[in-house]
Design goal:
The structure is a homodimer. By secondary structure, chain A is an alpha+beta fold. Chain A folds into two domains: about 40 residues, Arc Repressor Mutant, subunit A (Orthogonal Bundle); about 80 residues, Lrp/AsnC effector binding domain/regulation of amino acid metabolism (RAM) domain (Alpha-Beta Plaits, 2-Layer Sandwich). In chain A, helix 2 packs across helix 3. Chain A binds a DNA duplex through helix 3.
Chain lengths: ~160, ~160
DNA sequence: ATTGAAATGTTTTTAAA
DNA sequence: TTTAAAAACATTTCAAT
């Protein structure tokens, strides 16, 4: 990706604006960064094509759709051979309740962010699906009591 | 919020589409859910005004903007009085490297998701800023080796 | 290589049926 | 809910920097 590697001040401004308001019109965006609409559009398209902007998404409030519980679940696998790891990754991707999953350094292999309607839903997810999987070893769940800082995009050098 | 509480099949379809492609045009969206553009627009606006759709954001690839390292940092506070907790929350919101922070049940009070350019950047963030704070007790960092499942929105009952 | 202005076609939006 | 008109917008082309 040639052009996407050189992000100037205006590119960073565009990213900052679009991280905050992903549906800004090109006209409005152009005005905010003091560019003509055509120049602005070409820059945004370059960012999209270059993969700097990976996509756009509506942010849905979990509470409003009946997902009142968020948990972080740390999981250690008993076996670390390629097949076991691939199997686990496949399951994680199949489980709708898992909204994000990372392989981590440290004492626990995986960190899963899980959403559920309530404790009963979470419980049956954990017992009937996660723990039912062969290869899943130590499991540790923590529930979100309060969101101190909600994901609002990445820090950008100089907006 | 009266109207936002009753989400029918079509509302859920709209949310599903907009979670995947937040910049879909109203015309395209209407076609996908088999609605006239005006009916579709009114539904989307109701979801926005009711807070079901909290906003729209461009998703930026951290690697492409020089943020090669993501870490999860678990932090326990020494003091749990209201002032200490509020102070900590304030700091967390000031620290650009912290992209998300939750107060959790369990043995560690807070879980922070942190992005940094590299290990040196992360190290100075942790040593000079987090650990420099009075009141911060036990700290445990794990680094993301691989993203097994990337955040792609919430599960919705029946798309 | 990147910009701004003009021209074109599309979409959103309003208002009325 | 649909339709039709108006306004706003996205997008392409092209000349200029």
């Amino acid at each position: 990706m040639p052009a996407a590697d050189t992000l100037d001040r205006i590119d960073l401004q565009l990213l900052a604006e679009l991280q905050r308001q992903g549906r800004l019109s090109n006209a409005e965006l152009a005005e905010r960064v003091h560019l003509s609409p055509s120049a602005c559009l070409r820059r945004v398209q370059r960012l999209e094509r270059g993969g700097v902007i990976a996509g756009y998404r509506a942010e849905v409030d979990p509470e409003r759709i009946g997902l009142g519980l968020t948990a972080f679940v740390r999981i250690r696998l008993n076996h670390h051979d390629a097949a076991a790891v691939a199997d686990f990754a496949g399951s994680v991707n199949d489980w709708d309740e898992v909204v994000a999953c990372h392989a981590l350094t440290g004492d626990m292999d995986y960190l899963l962010q899980v959403v559920a309607a309530d404790l009963e839903h979470f419980s049956s997810f954990l017992l009937d699906r996660v723990l039912a999987r062969p290869g899943v070893g130590d499991v540790n769940s923590s529930f979100v009591l309060r969101t101190v800082k909600a994901m609002r995009g990445l820090p950008l050098p100089a907006g």
